[in-house]
Amino acid sequence: MRFKCTSLKYGSIFLLLLLISQSFNIAFAQTERKITGNLLDTENMPIIGASVSVKGTSKVTVTGDNGAFSISAKNGDKLVFTFMGYEPKEITIGTASSYKVTINEATASLTDVVVVGYGKSSRKALTSSISTVKGDDLNKGAISDVGQMLQGKVPGLNITRSGDPNRSAAIILRGASTLREGAQSPLFVIDGVIGADISILAPDDIASIDVLKDAAAAAIYGNRAANGVIMVTTKKGIAGQTQLSYSGYFGIENVSNQYDMMDADQLRAFLAKSNSSLTPANDKGANTNWQNEVQRKDAISYNHNISFSGGTEKTTYNASLNYFKQQGIIKTSDLDRFIGRVGVEQKAINDKLKLGFSLTNSVSNSNLVPYRNTILSQMLTYLPTAPIKNPDGSYFDNLTQSNYYNPVSMLDNAQENLKYKNLLASFTANLKLPFGFSYDVSASYQNYQTVYGAFYNSIYTSRYNNVRNTPDPPANPTIVSLIGQNGVAVRNAYQNTNKIIETYLTWDRKFGNHSINAVIGYSYQSSVNGDGVQASSTNFPINEVGYYNLSLGNPYAVKDFRTDYGGNSYQDVLMISDFARVNYNYKNKYVIQGSIRKDGSSVFGINKQYGYFPSVGGAWNIDQENFMKNQNLIGSLKLRASYGIAGNSLGFNPLSTKLIYGSVGQFYYNGINESALGAIQNENRDLRWEKTATTNIGTDFSLFKGRLSGSFDWYNKKTSDLIFTYEVDPNIYPASTITANVGELTNKGLEFVLNATPIAGKDFFWTTGINLARNVNKIVSLSDSRLALAKVYTVQPDGGGQTGATVQLLEPGLPIGTFYTFNYAGKNAAGVSQYYDAKGNLTTTPSNRTDYYAVGNAQPKALIGWTNNISYRNFDLSVFMRAVLGNKIMNITRADLFRPNTAQFTNIPVEVADESTADFNSYRYSSRFVENGSYLRLDNATLGYTFKKGIPGVKTLRVYATGNNLFIITGYKGIDPEINQGGIAPGVDTNNFYPKTRTFLLGLNVSFN
């Protein structure tokens, strides 16, 4: 018995010890401990800066050198690893305390998230044509307009930029869809804010840009989406990744090309050969290169950007400050701009509610070039034998010649300045609800303020008070009269405000193999534009007053002077919309999408203020089919098709459809001239927005495990209800013209993208991508049963001896930008230029319009962009080339210089030395001056080196050198073939060629731990 008792006692003790040990094990399992490890890619290279978090908690850290991480966790916790460009990875903590984690690089076609209207989508689930450009892939350089950053990056997006830092790029997506000037630009949406001004963003703040190209993608934005939609996503703070960064550069710009004009000796020799000579008033013994005198030898640009971001799982934040300065290549012109931005996102109610607030403010100061195009013209035509100044220091001028002005004097004796502030504030709230629902509310406020001042001193009012001004086409040259004496000044201040409130409910639910995402919402937008005042004055005591002190003028002493109070620019616009969209996805194989938006706007006719804009699309992910499972060649393959209708409401104000009375002249009554009042605008109660219907068929693919990928799209855009102004019978209508919906035009095109990674080694990496687009534009009709218009002659350059001559035509059957002018037939036996008349006979005296021919088109046959990115260890090299093919340019500037028989009055190019002075037609606008505008440009090349280790406190440090516009191959004889291709008068070079520059930059990017 004793033995049995002893055995029982020892057995009880053993059981007690076992229970105690188990409790220690349980306690140990529930106790947090230090978990360490390393995060690597599939090549066994460390991932630095990746986020490591404990799922369901606020604990987060980032990987450091060698991909090392350290975080507190307990058994059973899940660690989540995320890093841009890689697939997320989860591991479960077991008994080990150290882990080696490998993550895979993301396959773009499967994992990319695309921003769409009122939501996001994986690229796999898209049914429409959307192009995405990441922030790091945007164009680099001294860029004042963010639109230029997309140039050549998106197939079908035609962007032409000026060399002027104060001018925005012209942007057209998939061809012009309207005949209204200024109504062709895509709609910009910044972080969900519709119609935000893209100039408010600093390039360093952009995370990505998504371009919604077809109507099925854009129709959710209804009456503003006919020209496409560009969605801009800015950088946000990332939980656990506190980062302080600086980026900056310094650049020098030089003129890339000049006209080869005669110098003084060449001009005298040419005149002597033709038994002519300069007048004493014009030959002062000088040898002035007026282009050099008007342009800077070196224009300086620099940029500084500081950003700070970070946060926790509950709160993230970001802030940045940007300063940009760029001198224009034309003296006196420049731009400097400050941009400040701050954003906060906060989670609450167990992460069910996410609140966001962002505030961006930019302050810009632009020094403009008064009479810009006139000065550009005069720097070519002003005689090199004339000096800038007289011996006494006063500016030289020969006032006996008409339309002949000293360009340096015009620059130095006038000033024009525009200061503008741009503020954008937005608030967002997202609430996750049961059963897959979520509710979003957003409110935004935009305020744009301008203060403009111009001063033309006493030299202007005495010498240049009747100047021939040459605005950009399609506007025609005019004589600008400065009524006043001792200087004229004008000053104005205006502001535009835009308030938007949007709310929408989203249902995102999966039922077995079926997934549904549905959105229904409401939008309210109130805009007030042109709220401000303008005033002018003259007769100032001194020139130094400028435009700051209008009260120092004495305008009442000048008989004919009238104060300019500005135009009727005030607009109050209200827009109310309802919208809905449904996406259905079956097994990630078959996707169907439909959307509709109902828009109401106060700017259109009272009978047509509401419109409906539907869309439908479908996609088949072929790679998800069973017959694709056992092959390794094709990674992804998708077919998609869509159809949608979008509208265009750009360029309208609330008075566009109203009957308006105004001054129509004078009548004589009782010995006095009285003002006559009459209708100056007809009412149109049925005026509605233009509608653009787009059919898009495309395919997306990737091969060889993503090493080769691309897409192909075919589209057909048809715009109906074109808005145009027609002449009407004044016996039936109060006024002689009416703005109505009549006409139709089409754009048909192809787009192709191919991206490849030829080399992906441990030390050497090379990616290349090419995109190509072709668009064919055609005006189908300009008439209906009520209003008829056979053709519209546009662009009247009005050069000397060519009054009434036009160079372009709008006509059914032809594209926008068709050059319609005389057909050059060489020279006759007497050396005089001759042309074909309407019957095909030769003549030296053709008649305007009667003997015109269609001789080319300004729209390109193809747009090509080619990108190469190479990295070798710490070095990186990017090269971007861009080509525009098959377009024509009407070189009006060159035509107006072809005047050998008047060389004693205005300078001529060196090439005109071979022209005969007997040719009285040498300068006539004709096919002779319609030139091939094709070009290939090395747009950007950047070489950089990144220091990854060895600097205490510094996470990464990169230095780089960039060259922009390094060379161009073209047959065009003007300054540069990149002539504006926007508007209804594309491709016309008429002294609007602000010189392009070649830029060299040295830059630095650094981020701190």
Automatic annotation (TrEMBL):
InterPro entries attached to this UniProt entry: Beta-barrel_TonB (IPR000531), Beta-barrel_TonB_sf (IPR036942), CarboxyPept-like_regulatory (IPR008969), Plug_dom (IPR012910), Plug_dom_sf (IPR037066), TonB-dep_OMP_SusC/RagA (IPR023996), TonB-dep_OMP_SusC/RagA_CS (IPR023997), TonB-dep_rcpt-like (IPR039426)
Main location: membrane
This protein's UniProt keywords: Cell outer membrane, Membrane, Receptor, Signal, TonB box, Transmembrane, Transmembrane beta strand, Transport
Domain TonB-dependent receptor plug per the UniProt entry, residue ranges: 124-229
Full protein name: TonB-dependent receptor
Pfam entry (one): CarbopepD_reg_2
Domain of life according to the entry: Bacteria
Signal peptide location: 1-29
Natural source organism: Pedobacter psychrodurus
GO CC annotation: cell outer membrane
The keyword Signal is annotated on this UniProt entry: yes
Lineage, opening ranks: Bacteria, Pseudomonadati, Bacteroidota, Sphingobacteriia, Sphingobacteriales
Protein family membership: Belongs to the TonB-dependent receptor family.
PROSITE patterns noted in UniProt: TONB_DEPENDENT_REC_3
Membrane topology category: Multi-pass membrane protein
Domain TonB-dependent receptor-like beta-barrel stretches: 390-966
Subcellular location: Cell outer membrane
